[in-house]
Write a structure and sequence with these properties.
Chain B: Keywords: Ethylene biosynthesis, Fruit ripening, Lyase, Pyridoxal phosphate, S-adenosyl-L-methionine. Chain B: It catalyses: S-adenosyl-L-methionine = 1-aminocyclopropane-1-carboxylate + S-methyl-5'-thioadenosine + H(+). Chain B: It holds the Pfam family Aminotran_1_2. Chain B: This is 1-aminocyclopropane-1-carboxylate synthase. Chain B: It is an enzyme of class 4 (lyase). The complex is a heterodimer. By secondary structure, chain A is α/β, with parallel strands linked by helices. Chain A contains 16 helices and 15 strands. In chain A, the strands form 4 sheets. In chain A, strands 4-10-9-8-7-5-6 form a 7-stranded mixed sheet, with helices on both faces. In chain A, helix 6 (119-131) crosses helix 11 (291-300) and helix 14 crosses helix 16. In chain A, 53% of the residues are buried. Chain B is of the alpha/beta class. Chain B has helices spanning 3-6, 9-12, 21-31, 55-64, 79-83, 92-105, 122-134, 151-157, 178-190, 213-226, 249-255, 288-297, 305-315, 318-344, 372-386, 413-435, 456-464; strands spanning 44-45, 117-121, 140-144, 162-166, 195-201, 229-233, 263-268, 280-285, 349-350, 358-362, 388-389, 391-392, 403-407. In chain B, 42% of the residues lie in helices and 12% in strands. In chain B, helix 7 packs parallel to helix 8 (151-157) and helix 7 crosses helix 12. Chain B has 17 helices and 13 strands. Chain B folds into 2 domains: 4-47 and 363-435, Aspartate Aminotransferase, domain 1; 68-321, Aspartate Aminotransferase, domain 2, CATH 3.40.640.10. The chains are: A alpha/beta, B alpha/beta. The interface between A and B is large, with 74 and 75 residues.
Chain lengths: 473, 473
């Protein structure tokens, strides 16, 4: 008899993906300005480290919240005991306000329709458990966040079928692609329960256009029992026009009658990990107008509640509207500046990025640096960038991109100096690459390293292929 | 539109188990909660196994250790690193602190390896996680009765795992016998149910007793013979307040031949330290594959880094931990003695117990009929008239009617007095009535609009004595 469960012994947790392997290499040799200046610079982690000072100065001005105090009195006991899965109401109130503020107050949210979860990782998995089961599938536009393979599929048994997007139209979702994905799922005998989009997109860094949103809403509305999940985790990172349009805004404008079925089938996921840069605090949420979903998800949140200590801290912080307003504006300014730095730095190296207005990363076009228009060549390039250039960036194949040569490069998780250094390293590499394409010099330098890693690359790319094969079967 | 198809089966079935009377009593309390001055006639909550006896110790520690908070001037320099920390390995200092605490709770007789400590969303999340690692949908885990009602949700709701009860009764103080194990295992086999393991709670909820060494050894022998897993939920380990001392499965493993790969421990700080709001669940496995897989799964319920940081500080304070364990033990012993002595004055006995936050109270002689219907009737009287929320044994799947779990550590001394007074008055009345010429006692009519209605499930449970109606036909 098999000792462990099928889930424990398969690899649908997706952690054999290059996305995670790059992290592992970084862990072995991490860059440090003083201690390890030749180490690998982490550009594969979509963290927002640009605005901690704003949070720290707020804390300095609000000493009560530390030491578990409210109005000078200790509320430790109260917090220590608070495990109500409905969540701290004062916290949910400020969460909905914060979400509304991010949407320019064009949408309002009801705290009773919000379910708190341990990060959006838990929110997304919980939604899958509520909406789908083995034999069902969700359609996701590619490229998408590699973690979705684990979050949506692993323990739920739900499948992901890709909606292929291409650079030909800047990776926008088209009706044709949507239809094709739907038919693909049918061919695989999967019941399509919905579509999940990340808006703003990871890894593209772009906001969905109104056209795309309408397309998605119409598609879901036109199919029985189909849902639309909008993961809006990056909504507060929009730093440029066009602005952010939430799916909820579209619903508000088009379906004033709340009894219409579509209201029961659109759900938003949010988290404070990206906008506020607090991934360690595990603060996520599901927002839905579907009462049954809210009821079921609330019970399921027992498996991953937000620490009461953290709920309390944030309930006070986000209640400070002056602070939140200032934070959002300042944070966006800094992201915009940082993105520009990366884009122009890459430009100087002859590398273009997809034009983006949000997120903590750029979607970088390195197709011209590939030896051939294949994923093998992408892997080879990626490995050189990790091992020779010493930058951990994320290859497009790990995001299930259908075209080789694209990479996600993060810009908000390091200092300006480190970013500049990264650009310098990349420039030298590209220069060397173009000169070595004439001679074989470049080959020799990396030859020995590549030999020992050849096996690993083969394993990687074949694994990725197997991964993709499973979907495209 | 049928909601059954719009949402998943899991979202719309009631395998979350929340229709149990265990939870109904809470609702009665929520509507009319006791307060010594504001609502002295209210319902006293004796259905919640919380440990409120030692908050003063922690509060004092917090006042003296501002560095433990990342919000205080003394601790804010760590804010950004902690806020950013989402590594599913968890903070090393936190894991060390937990390993140390676990060891101390076992008198230092066992050492725990911090590298084997996995986080999860409370013990709720931990129990679900270990099931996902060890069993597939349709597989079964054996569990001795009576058991914690929420096991139905935690072990089976989203995992699809079935519970196979191992019947224990008062004839031998509810000890688990080899015969009962064999019978449960054989019956499962006959019904073509694949048993993957046995889960025990030691110290026991609701019995409040620790497993004696012989029984524990026999359980280990049993699972070794059958090559199935043993999950030991040791969440009440540090609540052992009198002899016999606590013997953990970890200790027994040191003294006998057994396959380590089959042994797993569930732990939490919710009971021993009274911190359910902080959601600190721990999975400790001696199986490397489970550690590896479980660690990935912990992404769905990581402990807030703010909380990890605080606890790392608290638990690394050796003096504090020693003082805490000693004081907690003393106060629990005192409270237990006071409560059980109080019950004895009206000839109410409890199962002799040495741990936990509750007593397993024997009210069989107060039943009008020796049946689960009789138990339910008595329970409703206790909640409605005596105004005490206690938990009926049937909600713990006890095979004998008449037992009730009564919590004693979640209130102050004053409230315990009030509760005892009410019990004494009630028992006095019942006894008097019974003595009056054999006159039939007026039993409160079952009001059909009473919110304490039993769900369909629990009615079925009363008839068959099994939790899931599909068990054994």
């Amino acid at each position: 008899m098999r000792l462990l469960s099928t889930k424990a012994t398969c690899n649908s947790h997706g952690q054999d993906s290059s996305y995670f392997l790059g992290w592992q290499e970084y862990e072995k040799n991490p860059y440090d300005e003083i201690l390890n200046p030749k180490g690998i610079i982490q550009m594969g982690l979509a963290e927002n480290q640009l605005s901690f000072d704003l949070l720290e100065s707020w804390l300095a001005k609000n000493p009560d919240v530390s030491g578990f105090k409210r109005d000078g009195k200790s509320i430790f006991r109260e917090l220590a005991l608070f495990q109500d899965y409905h969540g701290l109401s004062s916290f949910k109130k400020v969460m909905v306000d914060f979400m509304a503020e991010i949407r320019g107050n064009k949408v309002t949210f009801d705290p009773d329709h919000m379910v708190l979860t341990a990060g959006s990782t838990s929110a997304n998995e919980t939604l899958m458990f509520c909406l789908a089961e083995q034999g069902d599938a969700f359609l996701l536009p590619t490229p998408y966040y590699p973690g979705f393979d684990r979050d949506l599929k692993w323990r739920t048994g739900v499948e992901i079928v890709p909606i292929h997007c291409s650079s030909a139209n800047n990776f926008k979702i088209t009706e044709a692609a949507l239809q094709q994905a739907y038919h693909e799922a049918e061919k695989l005998n999967l019941n399509v329960k919905g579509i999940l989009v990340t808006n703003p997109s990871n890894p593209l860094g772009t906001t969905l256009s109104l056209e795309e949103l309408n397309l998605l809403v119409d598609f879901v509305n036109g199919h029985k029992n189909m849902h639309l999940i909008s993961d809006e985790i990056y909504s507060g990172t929009v730093f440029n026009s066009p602005g952010f349009v939430s799916v909820m805004e579209v619903l508000n404008n088009r379906f004033s009658d709340r009894d219409q079925a579509i209201w029961d089938r659109v759900h938003v996921v949010y988290s404070l990990s990206k906008d506020l840069g607090l991934p360690g605090f595990r603060v996520g949420c599901i927002y839905s107008e579907n009462d049954t979903v809210v009821a079921a998800a609330t019970k399921m949140s027992s498996f991953g509640l937000v620490s009461s200590q953290t709920q309390y801290l944030l309930s006070v912080m986000l209640a400070d509207k002056k602070f939140t307003r200032n934070y959002l504006v300042e944070n966006q300014k800094r992201l915009k500046r940082r993105q520009k730095m990366l884009v122009s730095g890459l430009m100087r190296t002859g590398i273009k990025c997809l034009e983006s207005n949000a997120g903590l990363f750029c979607w970088v076009d390195m197709r011209h640096l590939l030896k051939s228009n294949t994923f093998e060549a992408e892997m080879e390039l990626w490995m050189r960038i990790v091992y020779d250039v010493k930058l951990n960036i994320s290859p497009g194949s790990s995001c299930h991109c259908s075209e080789p040569g694209w990479f996600r490069v993060c810009f908000a998780n390091m200092s300006e100096e480190t970013l500049k250094l990264a650009m310098k390293r990349l420039k030298s590499f590209v220069v060397e690459l173009s000169s070595s394409s004439d001679t074989d010099n470049g080959e020799n330098k990396a030859h020995s390293k590549r030999n020992s890693l050849t096996k690993w690359v083969f394993r990687l790319s074949s694994r990725d292929h197997r991964h993709r094969d499973q979907e495209e079967r | 539109m049928s909601h059954q198809q719009l949402l998943s089966k899991i979202a719309t079935n009631d395998k979350h188990g929340e229709n149990s009377p265990y939870f109904d009593g809470w609702k009665a309390y929520d509507r009319n909660p006791f307060h010594s001055t504001k609502n002295p006639q209210g319902v006293i909550q004796m259905g919640l196994a919380e440990n409120q006896l030692c908050f003063d110790l922690i509060e004092e520690w917090i006042r003296n250790n501002p560095k433990a908070s990342i919000c205080t001037p003394e601790g804010v320099h760590q804010f950004r690193d902690i806020a950013n920390f989402q590594d599913y390995h968890g903070l090393p200092q936190f894991r060390k602190g937990v390993a140390n605490f676990m060891s101390k709770a076992r008198g230092g007789r066992v050492k725990y390896d911090p590298e084997r400590i996995l986080m999860s969303g409370g013990a709720t999340g931990a129990n679900e996680l270990i099931m996902f690692c060890l069993a597939d949908p349709g597989d079964a885990f054996m569990v001795p009765t009576p058991y914690y009602p929420a096991f139905v949700r935690d072990l089976g709701w989203r995992t699809g795992v079935q519970l196979v009860p191992v019947h224990c009764d008062s004839s031998n103080n509810f000890k688990v016998t080899r015969e009962a194990l064999e019978q449960a295992y054989d019956n499962a086999k006959k019904s073509n149910i694949d048993v993957k393991g046995l889960i025990i709670t030691n110290p026991s909820n609701p019995l409040g007793t620790t497993l004696d060494e012989e029984t524990l050894k026999s359980l280990v022998r049993f699972i070794n013979e059958k090559n199935i897993h043993l999950v030991c939920d040791e969440i009440y380990a540090a609540t052992v307040f009198s002899a016999p001392k606590f013997v953990s499965v970890s200790e027994v493993m040191q003294e006998m031949k057994c396959n380590k790969e089959l042994i797993h421990i569930i732990y939490s700080l919710s009971k021993d330290m009274g911190l359910p709001g902080f959601r600190v669940g721990i999975v400790y496995s001696y199986n490397n594959d489970v550690v590896s897989c479980g660690r990935k799964m912990s992404s769905f319920g990581l402990v807030s880094s703010q909380t990890q940081h605080f606890l790392a500080s608290l638990l690394s304070d050796e003096d504090f931990v020693n003082k805490y364990l000693e004081t907690s033990k003393k106060r629990l012993a005192k409270r237990h003695r006071f409560f059980t002595k109080g019950l004895e004055t009206v000839s109410i006995t409890c199962l002799a117990s040495n741990s936990g936050l509750f007593c397993w109270m024997n009210l069989r002689r107060l039943l009008k009929e020796q049946s689960f219907e009789g138990e339910m009737k008595l329970w409703r009287v206790i909640v409605d008239e005596v105004k005490l929320n206690v938990s009926p044994g049937s909600s713990f799947n006890c095979s004998e009617p008449g037992w009730f779990r009564v919590c004693f550590a979640n209130m102050d001394d004053e409230t315990v007095e009030v509760a005892l007074k009410r019990i004494r008055a009630f028992v006095g009345r019942e006894t008097n009535d019974n003595n009056n010429n054999g006159k039939r006692v007026e039993v409160k009519r079952w009001k059909s609009n009473n919110n304490l209605r039993l769900s369909f499930n629990s009615r079925r449970r009363i008839k068959s004595g099994y939790t899931l109606p599909n068990m054994y036909g």
